[in-house]
Specification:
With 500 residues, this protein is mainly α. It has 24 helices and no strands. It is globular.
Length: 500
């Protein structure tokens, strides 16, 4: 213990994070109890929410789990929420946690097939605009029938595959050499500018796909977790839910895809980055190299992965089990038939999702504060006090704003519960209840693309391994999502206000 100083503890606090960031988090932790005494739990609750959003915004400076976890733990200690409430929030979202733990790992074992398939597509389609439109449209279709997190995991796996191939070659190594692609020290000078453009290219595709998951996820009962909850309150089946949402979701889909095309044409908001010719040549060489070195066992692995992918699509489309359980089945099938039976081989598959799973559980601590301190109640009461004809549009706006700063599943849960209570007490008619349910669903799904914390798929992308590699920060995501937020958000509001 000789020589132990306060400075040593300060250096260990949040590790390699900048000193100003450490000071800020420490100041938050000191100020919150004082603020609670001076202003009460309601104001302090909103401050906590904003502090947590700050940790998400600084995700590239320090992974949000640690600073966000300290804030959530402090909230419990201060009595602003309870361990029991946090447990209830976790149990309510347990299917999502199962999905993250097992489905993302299942996708990991498909990476050879995904890289093989998307390399062919990327090299066949020369137009960046068509590639972007394809990524967005396919993500929308898949998210409508599967789920946004699974689709996002697929896109992330593809992007990591492309990036690792090019980074390895740009570092002077062969395609199958071991390589640490998180460090740029070995990048040859010739490739540095191309690497920057390639990062921009991948950022574009990732954001187009992420928005696509929102476009598709709003349409059906299975697209997002809150959709199923809303359907259970309204009694709508899959087809009726789709038809009820279609007057809003179909125009929004058209506007979203049009926005994708315009952004690539106009090259605004960081879009329009082209695939550098040298990168394309390397990917072509990689494809040829893989084809020439592919053994019978390699081909057998691709066949097993393809069969698993087909099984996955049908199992998810027909909802034969919880998504996480289907993911576990995918892991078992692929590893059993592809010879991945060592524990350390299996462990790598879980590295991507488990940190985010822990972060999501921490987030539920903050959601517990929102719930127990009724932070959204004044907004709900105000909207319900408005004239009936104005309520759907205002519900859409209020849901959108609150979803962008917290969590769309929680916001939808709170709002649909309040509206159902109003209907049960005969305060509103069935027709008005249906209109508000549509407004709640579309409001929590469409404008929430504004920030990464609005949707789990966006937050997963921000905190994934690909985000730092392609320099996709919180603020960059906000900027790149801004045109989509405006065009899709306004279209959704106009349809809710004047079509419903």
């Amino acid at each position: 213990m000789k020589g132990l100083t306060i400075n040593a503890f300060a250096e260990n606090f949040l590790g390699q994070a900048p000193d100003w960031y450490k000071t800020t988090i420490f100041a938050f932790l000191v100020a919150n109890p004082i603020l609670l005494l001076l202003t009460g739990p309601f104001v302090t609750g909103w401050v906590l929410v904003l502090e947590f959003i700050f940790t998400l915004a600084m995700a590239l400076r320090c992974y949000p789990l640690q600073p966000g976890g300290l804030l959530a733990f402090e909230a419990v200690v201060m009595g602003m929420t309870s361990p029991e409430t946090v447990k209830d929030e976790i149990l309510a979202a347990f299917p999502v946690l199962l999905l993250l733990i097992f489905m993302v790992a299942g996708i990991y074992f498909m990476k050879e097939l995904l890289l093989f398939t998307f390399t062919k597509i990327l090299l066949k389609i020369q137009s960046k605009m068509l590639i972007s439109l394809m990524f967005s449209f396919v993500a929308a279709i898949l998210s409508a029938f599967l789920d946004a997190l699974t689709v996002t995991a697929v896109v992330i796996s593809v992007a990591v595959g492309f990036y690792s191939v090019y980074h390895r070659v740009a570092s002077g190594k062969e395609f199958r050499d071991e390589h640490e692609y998180g460090q740029d020290g070995s990048i040859q000078e010739l490739h540095r500018e191309d690497l920057d453009h390639f990062r921009g290219f991948l950022r574009n595709l990732l954001m187009h796909a992420a928005v696509g998951t929102a476009l598709g996820g709003v349409c059906t009962t299975v697209g997002e977790p809150q959709n199923l909850l809303i359907a259970s309150y309204t009694g709508w089946n899959f087809v009726e839910f789709f038809l009820r949402m279609a007057p809003i979701t179909m125009p929004v889909l058209a506007v979203g895809l049009t926005t994708c095309v315009l952004l690539e044409q106009l090259k605004w908001f960081g879009y329009g980055e082209q695939l550098p010719s040298r990168v394309r040549d390397i990917l072509l060489d990689f494809d040829a190299h893989e084809a020439s070195h592919r053994t019978d066992r390699d081909r057998a692995r691709l066949v097993v992965q393809a069969v698993a992918a087909i099984f996955l699509c049908f199992a998810l489309a027909f909802h034969v089990a919880e998504v996480g359980i289907i993911g576990l089945t995918i892991i078992v099938l692929q590893t059993a038939f592809n010879g991945v039976i060592e524990e350390h081989q299996l462990g790598h598959a879980f590295e991507e999702a488990l940190p985010f799973t822990a972060l999501l559980v921490v987030f539920f601590g903050i959601v517990g504060v929102i719930h127990e301190q009724h932070l959204f109640s004044p907004v709900i009461a105000w909207v319900l006090s408005l004239p009936i004809e104005d309520q759907p549009g205002m519900f859409y706006i209020a849901n959108g704003l609150l979803s962008a700063i917290s969590d769309n599943v929680f916001v939808a849960t709170v709002y649909i519960g309040e509206v159902k209570a109003a209907f049960d007490s005969n305060t509103i008619t069935r027709e008005h209840f249906d209109a508000l349910a549509v407004a709640i669903n579309t409001g929590t799904n469409i404008p929430s693309v504004a920030t990464p914390n609005g949707q789990a798929a966006f937050l997963f992308l921000l905190t994934s391994s690909i985000a730092p590699l392609v320099r996709l920060s919180y603020m960059r995501m906000v900027v790149m999502a801004a045109p989509y937020t405006v065009t899709m958000g306004i279209t959704g509001w106009l349809c809710v206000q004047y079509v419903l």
